[in-house]
Amino acid sequence: MKKIGFLSFGHWSDASGSQARTAADVLHQSIDLAVAAEELGADGAYFRVHHFARQLGSPFPLLAAIGAKTNSIEIGTGVIDMRYENPLYMAEDAGAADLISDGRLQLGISRGSPEQVIDGYKYFGYVPDDTESDADMARKHTDVFLKVLEGEGFAQPNPQPMFPNPPGLLRVEPHSDGLRERIWWGAGSRATAEWTARQGMNLMSSTLLTEDTGVPFHRLQAEQIQRFRDEWAKHGFDHEPRVSVSRSIFPLLDDMDRAYFGGRGDDRDQVGHIDGGSARFGRSYADEPDRLIEQLRDDEAIAAADTLLLTVPNQLGVDYNAHVIDGILQHVAPGLGWR
């Protein structure tokens, strides 16, 4: 059995063929797609976070709205760039969204990806000091965020407060028990996956690794997952970690599917450069269901993960994306033992 959810980048554009032309369109359609996915039996609704872009940039109002309109589906991010975040304010927002959803929040966080603007986090008021990089700053913000989520008091109360305080030091409110164990780190390398395990976070791995050893992407990613689990086992955590991978998978079930994606399944990895270094990008899948099953059976990283996130083309609208999700749940997942 495998948890299967969707991952939306939340693009909008006033282009021909786009059904998401404004930010309002994307926000409303994201809620509708999460509701539809839950009704179809999907396990998760996840959203990418990008600043200074015509994409979703403020996740917590959206996650809270989805939490209020759904009952069982996990809701999360993939990923929030911690260079931009005030960790205490984020802990308040996350606690509220998790309580609204009755403990269904699964927050993916990380250093982030290449930005729309140069050093965009500086416009948000965050600048690395002279001894650290922007990645160091992201991890420092993360450390504070994780400690706050543990729920221990740390702030000295005012002796003459406006409202009565409980005894002792105060914590950020609202606090949601259990959220600390539902934080994921988006790791782009094997070394970062090992660091993630040491922090007691779940592992979120996408279709990009910021290193290239010459082996196929899915094998390199499977090695990353194994290194994460091996490192986790050294630290005596009292819960089992989770691992997700994301893939673009499109079953060709009708003429519309073939028009959109027929002949577009890229059966090879791509090697390129990101942040000044080599990177390997995983393949996408688009084929008839029986052939998809055979192809996906050979993907070692999907086999090693407990959660699969399907990247969806959100500008094609709610109905079409629900059709794609349903096609995988009904025609592909059973053949692989995922359902």
UniProtKB/TrEMBL annotation:
Alphabetized Gene3D superfamilies for the sequence: Luciferase-like domain
Domain Luciferase-like: 8-249
Highest taxon of source: Bacteria
One Pfam family linked to the record: Bac_luciferase
InterPro entries: Bact_Lucif_Oxidored (IPR050766), Luciferase-like_dom (IPR011251), Luciferase-like_sf (IPR036661)
Range of residues in the leader sequence: none
Annotated protein name in UniProt: LLM class flavin-dependent oxidoreductase
Organism listed in the record: Gordonia liuliyuniae
